[in-house]
Specification:
Layout (H helix, E strand, L loop, with lengths): L4 H16 L14 E8 L3 E2 L3 H11 L4 E4 L6 E2 L4 E8 H31 L6 E3 L9 H10 L13 E3 L1 H7 L2 H11 L5 E5 L2 H9 L4 E5 L3 H16 L5 E5 L7 H5 L5 E3 L2 H4 L6 E5 L1
């Protein structure tokens, strides 16, 4: 999981700046000295994620606001269940309502989607991994939510892992040349390569890459690739095999049962459906 303390602070500051601008004129309908109490509920079954962002929203708006969480981070909740309670200056509570809920509903949506996939492959040994297909500006936040949902992070960005994909292979003149170029960099990061054919998979195993990402393989080809990886590891190799491409909630277990170590799902961060949450003044 990425280190995100400063990222939370900066992301929240940006969210408040774009929403509040020169000031919340509607909140001025309430007297400045008015104190308030409020609570937030979930309107549906969900995995809740995003507490640090909610806390930071209200901390930046007014440190006098008290946030009392009633559930744990990553907890499954039911419709109408209270998530947290607020107490403090009413104007600040009103101003922070939407930014706080935006973070919480989006990250909970990611965590909930991940948990569904994790449950779908339970018992197979396969792990659910994310990709770089994240919402702009929320990379670290969504990577955090993936872990809350029970998944694992792929590389965080372009700086912490080499992933040779089809365009790199084409530009370098072939997968073997691309791998050789990557080795020559001596970058000190994991070396991963995508394979779209069994020939490319064999080339990756010959080079003992850290991760072999098989893209859109049929089930028979995927089983054969898993067999080759297991034989490779039995000889002392280290390569982990990951499937990516066509996995959905309906078919992901079939891919997992082929014996892959990981399944990458771009949709858990790309196709986010926010969880329905609501804040109510008491």
């Amino acid at each position: 999981m990425p280190a995100i303390a400063s990222d939370i602070r900066d992301t929240v500051a940006h969210a408040l700046a774009e929403d509040v601008g020169s000031g919340d004129v509607t909140a001025r309908l309430v007297p400045a000295a008015e104190q308030g109490r409020a609570y937030v509920i979930s309107r549906e079954d969900a995995v809740i994620c995003g507490r640090p962002w909610v806390d930071e929203v209200f901390r930046q708006l007014d440190p006098a606001i008290e946030v009392n969480w009633l559930i744990a981070e990553g907890q499954q909740v039911a419709p109408d269940q209270r998530l947290y309670e607020l107490k403090g200056p009413a104007r600040a509570l009103l101003t922070g309502e939407r930014p706080a809920l935006n973070f919480l509903q989006t990250l909970s949506g990611t965590a909930t989607a991940v948990r569904q996939y994790v449950d779908a492959v339970a018992g197979t040994g396969a792990r659910i991994a994310d990709t770089r297909k994240t919402l702009p500006g929320l990379r670290n936040a969504q990577k955090y939510a993936v872990v809350c949902g029970g998944g694992i992070n792929h590389r965080i960005g372009l700086y912490d892992g080499i992933l040779i994909k089809e365009n790199h292979i084409a530009a370098a003149g072939g997968i073997r040349q691309a791998i050789a170029n990557a080795r020559a960099l001596d970058a000190g990061v994991p070396l991963m390569t995508e394979a779209e054919t069994m020939e490319e998979a064999r080339a990756a195993l010959e080079a003992d890459v850290d991760l072999l990402l098989v893209d859109d393989f049929s089930l028979p080809d995927l089983r054969e690739a898993v067999r080759l990886v297991r034989e490779h590891r039995a000889r002392g190799g280290k390569t982990v095999i990951e499937y990516s491409g066509g996995a959905t909630l309906q078919n992901v277990r079939g891919y997992a049962e082929c014996g892959v170590d990981r399944i990458a799902i771009g949709g858990i961060t790309k196709h986010v459906r926010a969880v329905d949450l609501s804040m109510r003044f008491a």
